[in-house]
Amino acid sequence: MDAIFEYFSRLASYNPLIVLIELFLIGLVVYWTVNFLEGTRGERLFRGILILLLVVSMAIKLVISTFDFARLQYLYSFFLLLVMIIAVAAFQPELRRMLIRIGQTGSFGSSVQQQLSKTVEEIISAVKALSDKKTGAIIVLERKVALGEFVETGVKIDAKVKAALLMTIFYPNTALHDLAVIIHGDRIAAARVQLPLAESGSVGGSLGSRHRAAVGITTGSDAVAIVVSEETGTISISENGQLDRYINEEVLRKRLTSAIIDENSLLDKLRREAEHKKLPDAANREI
Length: 287
Prior knowledge:
alpha+beta; YojJ-like (1; seven-stranded mixed β-sheet; elongated; disordered C terminus
C-alpha cells in the first residue's frame, strides 16, 4: 500500500499542465489509431494489447518499487521491446494500409477527399441496387446547413456509409425502412427521419410522399435528396427545391461529386487562400 501511495504522490508532484498536455497527446494518438482500425480485425486486437500493456506495466512498476527487484526492472525493458515487435507483426496489414494511404494521398486533406469519394460510390451502389429491386428509399445528404432538428426526429445511427447498411435500412417491413436517412459527411447520422412535405402540386400529382419530402427538405436547406421510387424503381434527385427524375448512374455520380467532393475542395481552397492573405498582414504588423 505504501508503494501505491508513493506512486500517486509522485504523480501529484508533476506539473499539472504538462501532465494534461501529455495525456491529451496520448489520447489523440489512441483515438486516431482506433478510428483508423475501426471495422477491421485489428481494432479488437489493438484494444486488447493496450489494456494488457497498461495492466502489466502498472503491476510491474508497483512490484519493482515495493520489493526493489532490479532484475525484473531489467527484463521489463525487454518486455516493452517484445510488445513492440509483436504489435508490428500483428498489425502488418493495417500498417501497410496506412503507409499506402499516406503515399497515395500525400496529405491528410486529400485523404478526406478520398473518403468522400468512397462515400459517393457506396451511395451509388446502394441506390442502384434499391432501384433494381424497386425498393423505395429517400437519402438526404447534409451540406452546409445543419439538419440536426430533423435528425432528432429519427433513430440515430452514427455509422460509416456502406451500401450494405443502406440496403438493410430500406429493406421492406423492417423497423427503419420507412421515412428518410440523413448522411453527414461519410457517416449515416440517422434513419426513419421525418421530413417536411412540399405541396402536392409542386411535384406533380402522380408522385408520392417521398418525392414531396425530397423537395420539401431541399427547399428549406442546401441539402441534396435522392429518391428511389417504390413503384417504378426510378431514381430522382432533388436540389434547391427542384426535382430531376429518371437519373442514371453517370448523372448521379456527377451530381453527388459536385455536391459533396467538389464543394468540399472549394471550401478548403478558399480557406487556404484566406489564411494565406492573413499571413502578410500579420508579418507587417510584427515589423
